Amino acid sequence: MILFISGTLQDLEAQEIESQNMKHQVGLQHDNDFFLLTDRYYSFGLFLNYTYRPEKGIFKKSNEQLNFTLGAEAFTPDDTKTEEITEMDRPYAGYLGLNSGWTLVNNNNFYNLQLELGIAGKSSGAGAFQRWYHNAVVVSEPQSWIGELSDSFHMNLYADYAKEWQLVPNPFGVHLALRSQFAYGTKDQFIQPEIVAYFGRRNKMGSSIGYGQIGDTERELFFAFRAGYRFVAYNGLLEGNYWGDDSVFLVDSLETVIQIGFDFQHRFKKNDYKFGYRFHSDETEASQTHQYVILSYARSF
Questions:
Q1: How far is CA 158 from the centre of its chain?
Q2: Of 39, 73, 161, 171, which one is least surrounded by beta carbons within 10 A?
Q3: DSSP secondary structure code for residue 137 in this structure
Q4: Are 147 and 249 in contact (CB under 8 A)?
Q5: 258 - beta bridge partners?
Q6: Residue 43 burial by CB count (10 A; 0-12/13-18/19+): exposed, middle or buried?
Q7: CA angle at residue 162 from 157 to 163, to 5 degrees?
Q8: Domains (ranges, CATH) in the chain?
């Protein structure tokens, strides 16, 4: 009996130490509208992510993280069969970017700064990958990618801030957050206020997968509803590079975008799972609404 109790206490202590020593995480995310039986606009996104949580950050009494993401994205017009540029409602655009970010969580405040460097155009490889995918996997004709954006280099800054309140504690907790995002650079220029409501078993902001935080293996199981309003000043994947672009076809009229989303997230030991849904209103006068699915898995160590 004594040996059993001793062994149990040792296991609990080991779990607690493990829970506090998760300093690294590697994740993979795939966005696609094909799951919703469409194939237009934001057609797909593939992202490889690495997160590091240092033992000591810049600021005391706060949680800090470093994040690096390599991602490829493809954007297509509504009519992917036509080869006439005059019949397209947006240009084909491939993008390959490397994003580095720094996150700070203090009490119920979330801060995130990111710098992204990327390449748009054929050199990104996104268009070639989509054509290969449709030939090899999907039983459908590949897109033409006629009039794709010319090759250009992009640099962008992103800032993200959120303030959160806990309305109901666990086990079935309720959290409400007001979030604001800002972007400026050659690819994106926008301001987006957003409101997010979380329902279910969720950790505090500094250790929750709801904010991409690692360092804790305590179980989480919740869903979230979000609604945002994006005031767009510039979109480089529609209008071309902000400092000049010689692409054949560009769009010069943008709309304010309404974004609505749903997320289901689960943390089990070292594993993080996410299923998300996003709906966007039309981005230009000629385009239509769009929706896609997010699938993500990450493992901490």
A1: 13
A2: 171
A3: T
A4: yes
A5: 229
A6: buried
A7: 155
A8: 21-300 (2.40.128.140)
Q: Is residue 239 within a helix (H) or strand (E), and if so which, with residue range?
A: helix 236-239
Name 262's Cβ contacts closer than 8 Å, sequence gap at least 6: 223, 224, 225, 226, 276, 277
Tokens of 140: 């459908």
Look up residue 61 and give its two tokens. Answer: 């009494």
The label of the residue with tokens 């199981």 reads 221
pLDDT, tens digit, 9 for 90 and up, residues 62-101: 899 999 999 999 999 999 989 999 999 999 999 999 999 9
Max Cα distance, the chain (Å): 80
* Residue 7, Cβ density class (10 Å: 0-12 exposed, 13-18 middle, ≥19 buried): exposed
Cα 205 from Cα 62, distance rounded (Å) = 11
First to last CA, the chain: 33
Plot region of 221 (φ>0 → left; ψ -120 to 50 → alpha; else → beta): beta
If you search the block for the tokens 């896609």, which residue do you land on? 292
Contact of 217 with 300, CB cutoff 8 Å: yes
C-alpha count within 13 angstroms, C-beta hemisphere, residue 134: 17
Give the tens place of pLDDT for each residue, 235-280: 999 999 999 999 999 998 899 999 999 999 999 999 999 999 999 9
- Nearest CA to 249 out of 76, 43, 37 is that of 76
How many whole angstroms separate alpha carbon 229 and alpha carbon 207? Answer: 27
CB-CB contact of 97 with 114 (8 Å): no
